[in-house]
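Minutes, project huddle
Topic: does the predicted pose make sense with flavin-adenine dinucleotide bound?
PN asked that the exact inputs be recorded in the minutes so nobody has to dig through chat later. Recorded below.
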Amino acid sequence: MDLRYSESEEAFRSSLRSWLAEVLPTLGPRPSNLDWPGRRAYDTTWQRMLFDAGYAGIDWPVEGGGRGASPVEQLIYLEELERAHAPYVGVNFVGLLHAGPTVIVEGTPEQRARFLPPILRGDEVWCQGFSEPGAGSDLASLRTRAERDGDEYVVTGQKIWTSHAEVADFCELLVRTGPEDGRHRGITWLILPMDRPGIDFRPLRTIAGSTEFGELFLDGVRVPVANRVGDENDGWRVTMTTLSFERGTAFVGEVLQSMELLRGLRSMARSTGEWDEAEVRRRVGHLGAELDALWALARRNVSQAARTGVPGIGGSVYKLALSELRQRIAELGVDLAGPAGLVFGDLPGDRALALAGSGGTGSGGTGPDGTAPGGTGSDGARVPGNAELVNTWVHSFSRTIAAGTSQIQRNIIAERILGLPKG
Ligand SMILES: Cc1cc2nc3c(=O)[nH]c(=O)nc-3n(C[C@H](O)[C@H](O)[C@H](O)COP(=O)(O)OP(=O)(O)OC[C@H]3O[C@@H](n4cnc5c(N)ncnc54)[C@H](O)[C@@H]3O)c2cc1C
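Predicted holo structure (tokens), as shared on screen:
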């Protein structure tokens, strides 16, 4: 087996690297998490730049309008974006990483032609309307009702925790079309246009201060039957496709982000002298080894998705491991921050200045949350500023809940991968 990159893969990496070096400086500063119109504009502008340069939908098949890149190229793409500190998908998360891929696999040719190109161009933003009060982990108990009326469905009910709905144009929506007690058998997957009358979105503010998600109230909202993906009452099967993308490949780039964060923490510990403590070195070493293992698993998921069109059930293993590991990396960050970790914001002259005094620089760009400028360590790693560290830690708690809790992933692994009896 030849584990080296081929000439064409090296050429792909080098042209992507040059393009990133050229365009990233032209992208303005990342807006604050509180500025939703600004966030949408920033994320969709970046998506448009990727599209114009031929890098949008890198892992989407050519028939879906994507680049149809090989698994190796997909991984090179993610590595290079992270290396260059390029923006994350942001508000394009649902459209690019699981709604679009679901439409590719399950949609009609008309749906693919209508909905996929605007996602790739950054013209249309999607959100996910799956969870309801009382139907999160037990998603099959959802009650939002859709009644057929001619060539439309009339939808009434409530969704909750709908991320990015504030700026979304469409929502991947699960509704009940079968009997109330039909569970998995009575569910349908719809594309809900967010500009329809009868939709009321009420943002929910998190402890981090921003309104990442909210409640979606639907009162007699009319959705064309043409927007149904899959058959009526066959939405659970379609949902399994969506969730396999959400858990199996959507978070692949986050392993690389986590590696970058860990490198930054190591650099920070070196600059403050905490690296001399064996316990700190041991923690960094363990976390680094786990990230390496997870990157191997991520590569396996990407290869599987490229081979079969859909990531497998192993996405639950990946999602479980990544979300718990992210929490431990974030915890290391606030431990290293010491008393500053109690302050939810930037500190005048924090690590950026300390780095300037130790051979690094104090101007290493903006943190992924758009709040905290970091520094660059003498080893070239981007060291997060205080606000970014604390923000990362606060956000890390939600990771073992979003996209299915750790307990639910463990149930899936036990029952569907290991074949253990139902608890
Ligand atoms: C940051 C964030 C973003 C989100 N974005 C979206 C979104 O965009 N769209 C969307 O639809 N949803 C979204 N969600 C919702 C998310 O999918 C749900 O919160 C999650 O599925 C858990 O459901 P729940 O909150 O109703 O908790 P519950 O299901 O009520 O669970 C409560 C607790 O009970 C445990 N539990 C429940 N059932 C079992 C069981 N059978 N065995 C063992 N333990 C069990 C759970 O693990 C959990 O600890 C988001 C959540 C977060 C945190």
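Observations noted during the meeting:
- The longest strand covers residues 213-224.
- Residues 352-372 have pLDDT under 50 and may be disordered.
No decisions taken; revisit at the next huddle.
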